[in-house]
Amino acid sequence: MSTLLLLPGDGIGPEVCGEVRRVAQVLTPDLNVEERIYGGASYDAHGTPLTDEVRDAALASDAVLMGAVGGPQWANAPRHLRPEAGLLNLRKAMDVYANLRPAYCFEALADASSLKRELVSGLDIMFVRELTGGVYFGQPRGIEDLGGGQKRGVDTQIYTTAEIERVARVAFELARGRGNRVASAEKSNVMESGLLWKQVVTELHARDYPDVQLEHILADNCAMQLVRAPKQFDVIVTDNLFGDILSDAAAMLTGSLGMLPSAALGAAGKPGLYEPIHGSAPDIAGKGVANPLAAILSFEMALRWSLNRADAADALLAAVKAALDGGARTRDLGGELSTAQMGDAVLANLGR
Ligand code: ATP
Ligand code: MG
């Protein structure tokens, strides 16, 4: 039996994860769903956002689904004990190096009149962002005092062949199940790490994935193309920094924050870490109005990528589409449904 570890966290996390729990009971009754406290809630109870026990439970599970962590009440906690530190430590412990961030637009939301924003109907991009290397981790880093009132801020971008190859492999594998196209974004014209990135991706492609169409694109041009003609892309693989920026930009072409899931994957057979991209939303926490679809779609990704249940994932995705087609809208989508009512709408469409 597979185990899903739920870490609801803080703010709206417990509310949206409650809907995941209801969906799992109906869709995958044989799935063992465990739950632990985590984030600010764990800091309050145990003095740390991630206890060793919870970390070990995560490593022993088949997939971890998080709600969100953090909130204003923990802003003055020591930096290494803040809820967000618990998230970084969990990512590190699980060694999840490939961040999958889909940017797709549900047809039912495409007119977007209620969102007061322009969406891109038919958009369906999968970002694969390198998550555990690059400039966010490279040494040396820090702020040095140069004297005379001058300081120097230093960051270092480092990528090894192995780090590039393993994340690129994830992108090529994914592409085979989709549009069979990968765009690899870097700045090989000005960065040595970008040049190595391009070489390693080129070699891996020639060796193992010649059937997949590969395009190398400079990251600045990729940003431009995402605004100009975003539907040209299928899978985009890129480093930690560019992936952070490019995937956020593309996310805004698809609708509400409340709709967007993500996955972080490590080596084959190791548990993946799934979470909505939204935060703990303290402004609406406890009101029962948060959109649970980002969390429910994160569960959909967990079913597909860690739990070996593509059939259940397909059924869940279809149920979400049907609920939206039927007019189900939480407040962030311009409607009036509560968190639980949106959960009801998905449940009502499961198995149809
Ligand atoms: P964090 O720093 O934790 O990422 P944030 O400041 O980026 O937090 P969020 O917590 O994601 O922001 O919230 C941003 C805005 O989006 C808030 O107004 C919040 O209410 C809204 N929001 C976020 N998630 C949802 C959701 N699931 N349903 C409805 N509204 C949401
Ligand atoms: Mg945020």
Characterization of the model:
The protein is globular and about 55 Å long. 39% of the residues lie in helices and 21% in strands. Helix 1 (13-27) packs parallel to helix 11, helix 7 packs parallel to helix 8 (240-251) and helix 9 runs antiparallel to helix 10. It folds into two domains: 1-100 and 257-352, Isopropylmalate Dehydrogenase (3-Layer(aba) Sandwich), CATH 3.40.718; 113-126 and 157-254, Response regulator (Rossmann fold, 3-Layer(aba) Sandwich). Strand 11 (261-265) and strand 12 form a beta hairpin. The model has no long low-confidence stretch (mean pLDDT 95). It has 352 residues and is an alpha/beta fold. It has helices at residues 13-27, 40-46, 52-60, 83-94, 161-176, 192-208, 219-228, 240-251, 293-305, 310-325, 339-349; strands spanning 3-9, 32-35, 63-68, 98-104, 124-130, 138-147, 150-156, 181-186, 213-218, 235-238, 261-265, 272-276. Bound molecules: adenosine-5'-triphosphate and magnesium ion. Adenosine-5'-triphosphate (ATP) is lined by residues 12, 16, 68, 70, 257-258, 278-281, 283-284, 290-291, 294, 332.
Helix content range: 25-40%
Unreliable runs: none
Q: How many domains make up the coordinates?
A: 2
**How would you state the average pLDDT, rounded?**
95
Provide the list of bound ligands, each named once: adenosine-5'-triphosphate, magnesium ion
Principal-axis shape equals: globular
Query: In CATH terms, what is the architecture of the largest domain?
Result: 3-Layer(aba) Sandwich
Q: What series of H and E elements makes up the topology?
A: EHEHHEHEEEEHEHEHEHEEHHH
Q: Got a strand count?
A: 12
Distance between the termini: 26 Å
Instruction: Look at the helices and sheets and give the structural class.
Output: alpha/beta
Per CATH, the class of the largest domain reads Alpha Beta
C-alpha Rg (nearest Å): 20 Å
Number of helical runs? 11
**Major sheet summary line:** 10 strands, mixed
Strand content: 15-25%
Organism: Caulobacter rhizosphaerae
Function: Catalyzes the oxidation of 3-carboxy-2-hydroxy-4-methylpentanoate (3-isopropylmalate) to 3-carboxy-4-methyl-2-oxopentanoate. The product decarboxylates to 4-methyl-2 oxopentanoate.
Subunit structure: Homodimer.
Family: Belongs to the isocitrate and isopropylmalate dehydrogenases family. LeuB type 1 subfamily.
